[in-house]
Structure formats: C-alpha cells, structure tokens
Specification:
Layout lengths: L3 E6 L4 E6 L40 E4 L4 E4 L2 E2 H7 L2 H10 L5 H13 L5 H8 L7 H15 L9 H27 L12 H10 L11 H14 L6 H10 L5 H13 L6 H12 L5 H9 L18 H17 L4 H13 L2 H5 L6 H11 L7 H22 L25
Antiparallel strand pairs: 1-2, 3-4, 4-5
The protein binds carboxymethyl coenzyme *A (CMC).
Carboxymethyl coenzyme *A binds next to helix 16.
C-alpha cells in the first residue's frame, strides 16, 4: 500500500489519492479538489499554524511529548555540558560542530565584528533614559541595515557569512550599550580577548574608571550555558518572522529586527520579564493559592508555563534549574525562588495544569538567574535575543537555500461583505 490518503468529496462524489510524505500531506494537493472548473479548490484553514509545517528543516528537532530538544541531532543536555555558545552557534549555522581550526577562525570572525559604528552609539544615545532595552535593540538591529547595504547580496555565500558574523558579533554590544544608556553610564567597548559571555558581562558591568574588571567565571559560564539553551527552537513566532521577512529578500538586519520584535511579546521571549514581575507581585508563598485560583478562573496566565510544542517538562527549564543552584552559590539565593518553587509545586499537582499539560518553560526560572546576576528586569528579553540571533540566522540561511521556498504568503478565508456600492449622494 503506498503512503497516501484517500479523500472522498461528498459535495461531488469524487475521490482523490493524496500522497503522504514524512507524515504530512501537501496542502497544495488539496487544491485539485473542486466542485467545478471555476472553483478555486480546497484550502486548509489553520489559524496560528497549529498543524501546518511551513518548511523542511534540519536544524532543530523537538519532541514535545517526550521533552526532547536537539540541535543538528545533538541533545541539548550534551551541548549545554560540553560546548560553549560560539561552538553551538557554529553548529547551528554550519550543520556540524567546528574543528579546532574552524572554531578559532569562527571565533576570530565573530569577535572581529563586535564593534559597532560610532553612529550606532549616537543613535542609541537619542533614546529616552527609560527606553525599554528591547525597543532599543529592535531599532538598532534594523538600523544596521543602513550601515551595511552590501547585505542585500544575500545570494552570495561570502556576503551571507559576513552578515552572520556581524550580527552575532554586534548584538551583545548593542544590548550592553542599551543597558548602559538606561543607567546613564559611559559605554564600554568590546574586549576581543574575552569569551563571548565574558565580553558581554564586561561591557555591561565594568565600572567606567576601572581597568581591572573581571567577570565572575561561574556567572560567565552560567550565562554561556543559558545562551546555548536559547540559541534555537525551530519554527517559533520569532523564527517564523525571520523566515517570513527573509522570504521577501529583505536584508538580514531587517529580518532580524522583525524577529526580535516578535520575540519581544510577553507570550514569547518577553515572558521571562513577565515571570519576574509576577513573582514580585505575588511577594510571598502564602499568596500562591490565590494566584492559582485567578489562573484557573482565566483571569490571568501563569507566565513561564505552557508551550505550543512541549506537553511535558521543557528540557531547557530542567537545565536552568540546575544552573540556578550554581549561580545562587555565588550571588546568594534569590528570594523569589521559594515562590517560584511553590508555584511550580502547586501547579504541577493541580488538575487544571495536569489536564492541559502545562509545565514550566524556559522562561520560568531564567529570570531568577538573570536577576541574581544583577540584570534589570527590562533587559531579560534582550538576554534571550542575543543567543537566538544564531538560530534566526541559521534558519534564514536554510530558507534562502531551500529551492521549495518562495515569498511567504498565507491564504485567507474572506468573511467580509460581498461586493457593495457607495450609495448615490442625495
Ligand atoms: N497559564 C494558564 N493557562 C494556560 C497557560 C498559562 N501559562 N498556557 C496555556 N494555558 C491554557 C489556555 O488558556 C488553554 O486553555 P483552554 O483549553 O481552556 O482554552 C490551554 O491551556 C491551551 O493553551 P493555548 O493558549 O491554546 O496554547 P498555545 O500553544 O496557543 O500557547 C503559550 C502557548 C506559550 C503562548 C501559552 O502557554 C502561554 O501564553 N504561556 C504563558 C507565556 C509564556 O510563558 N510564554 C513563553 C513560552 S516559552 C519561550 C518561548 O519559546 O517563547
């Protein structure tokens, strides 16, 4: 029996054989199902893409029921333990882990591009003192497209590589500048002798008058692991934005700005910020039952819980919980941790959460670590965007090289008026 789906259209009595490949049918195969020659053909309707694959991808694999996440085949747990962020970024972009020489060259290329044009600095200075750092990041990444008009040559492999190095290199610099702007502190330029996470922490926290600042190695390592965990997550909203804008052949800076804008939303990468605000609002363990009641009454969401794909514990959240212990040994225990643990305990034993398969996601514990490390709450989504840049770029490149991809353009089911006319003036 060939892998196929037999469909009978009860409107016409006609039958169709639709091939099944990789457990999917092609939506375009439905178009032949018509009631007449002038009929447009059958569409599939899938608001929010609940059951539609928009691409074939070899980058990230998720099994949401079993809580599995792999980049290019490697389990996230192994990558978090054995690789640093730049190795993982290379893996995502190139498909294989780098050899020693490849790694040195990649690190050099990314590091070489950590500086931003002085005009980017001036551009950031024009934001209000209380501008949200994510708004600054989105704008500054978009502004980079005006500095690198050569980025339009996306079909040239060398040009693509150059933009990838630039974006992975410059994003932490812009993020740190945005933070220092909000603090009214002089910007600290990148130090190319430092590792990726170490350099970011130094640009964030080095006092202007100090020449001897050294990021705490435990915290730098913890941040690097968090970067690994956030690097890619297949076709989420921001990655879909990256691919969708990229499909119009816009330059990668404009695409990445669109992706970062999608990430900013509280249902996506902005959730880490919202979790922290929620925990602060709860304030003490005894208020947890009341919050759970409000959630069950649909008056609010439990931020940091639930996921479109994971219907089991998010494997990233499990690793983050372990990192939290290491970080708290250095920084002292975050007081909000007890509230978070209580929330998790109550939620995971409640039928509402059990029946809906709602588990803590990556954002539930990450904010506690960021806060313990001294990051202000506003900047949490930016800390998600920095590492996700490599995933976005890997996905953008894959989309451009995929001969099946075209400009992204969903269909709609029109529900408005049929043709009507403006009444004649009386
Ligand atoms: N708190 C309470 N109820 C929830 C939650 C939550 N966090 N998440 C989902 N539900 C309920 C939802 O109300 C729905 O109930 P019902 O069946 O009665 O209508 C049911 O669970 C299914 O949820 P859904 O909204 O259909 O699921 P979705 O796949 O469309 O949404 C989500 C996924 C992540 C947007 C959602 O779970 C959510 O809003 N979570 C809170 C925000 C959050 O933590 N986002 C970070 C996601 S992980 C990081 C990332 O990759 O972005």
């Amino acid at each position: 029996m060939p892998d196929s789906l037999s469909i009978k259209d009860n409107r016409t009595g006609k039958s169709y054989e639709i091939p099944i490949q990789d457990d999917a049918i092609r939506a375009m195969d439905l178009r032949q199902i018509k009631t007449s020659d002038s009929d447009f053909g059958l569409l599939s309707y899938d608001p929010a893409f609940m059951n539609t694959a928009s691409c074939r991808s070899s980058i990230t694999y998720i099994d949401g029921d079993r809580g599995i996440l792999r980049y290019r085949g490697y389990p996230i747990e192994e990558l978090a333990e054995k690789c640093n962020y730049l190795e993982v970024a290379y893996l995502l972009v190139h498909g294989e882990l780098p050899s020693k020489n490849q790694y040195e060259e990649w690190k050099h290329n990314v590091t070489y591009h950590t500086m931003v044009h002085e005009n980017v600095k001036k551009f950031l200075e024009e934001f209000r003192y209380d501008a949200h750092p994510m708004g600054m990041l989105v704008s500054a990444v978009a502004a980079l497209s005006t500095f690198y008009p050569d980025a339009k040559h996306f079909s040239d492999e060398n040009s693509r590589r150059l933009q990838i190095h630039r974006l992975i290199g410059k994003t932490p610099t812009i993020a740190a500048f945005a933070y220092r702007h909000s603090m009214g502190m002089a910007y600290v330029y990148p130090d190319n002798d430092l590792d990726y996470a170490e350099n970011f922490l130094t640009m964030m926290y080095k006092p202007p008058a100090s020449s001897t600042f050294e990021a705490n190695p435990v915290l730098a390592k913890a941040l690097d692991v968090l970067f690994v965990l956030h690097a890619d997550h297949e076709q989420n909203a921001s990655t879909s934005a990256m691919r969708s804008v990229g499909s119009t052949h816009a330059d990668p800076y404009s695409c990445a700005a669109a992706a970062a804008a999608a990430l900013y939303g509280p249902l996506h990468g902005g959730a880490n910020e919202e979790v922290l605000r929620m925990l602060e609002e709860i304030g003490s363990k005894d208020k947890v039952p009341e919050i759970i009641r409000q959630v069950k009454d649909k008056k609010r969401l439990l931020m940091g819980f639930g996921h479109r794909v994971y219907k089991n514990y998010d494997p990233r959240a499990q690793i983050i919980k372990r990192i939290a212990d290491q970080v708290f040994e250095v920084t002292g225990r975050n007081k909000l941790l007890d509230i978070a643990l209580e929330l998790e305990k109550v939620a995971l034993s409640d039928d509402y959460f059990i029946s809906k398969h709602l588990y803590p996601n990556v954002d539930f514990y990450s904010g506690l670590i960021y806060q313990a490390m001294g990051f202000p709450t506003d900047i949490f989504p930016v800390l998600f965007a920095i590492p996700r840049m490599s995933g976005w770029l890997a996905q953008w490149q894959e989309m451009l090289l995929d001969p099946e991809q075209k400009i992204s353009r969903p269909r709609q089911i029109y529900t408005g008026y049929p043709e009507r006319h403006i009444p004649a003036q009386t």
